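call fold(seq) -> tokens
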Amino acid sequence: MAGTSHGHTPAAWTGVTISFIGFCISGAFMVLANPLGFWAGVVVILLGGVVGMAMKAAGLGMPKESEEMVRARNEAGRAQSGSQIQTH
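ret:
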């Protein structure tokens, strides 16, 4: 996973940040025993997901890999692991 840029996009950062703020809102209102505030925080959490998906659709997320790219990466991994076995 370290070799990929998984999650390092404006869409991902924005969606997670909004969801984190919603989590903090929900947590605070849960402690304050305020159900309306808690559910408002849950709405903000869901809004973070919607905003992240909308930003990805607008081109600010990672593009999906084509089947050709997946196949090439798998073949390169097999070739690399095969060469490591032979050298040991």
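The chain has one domain: 10-87.
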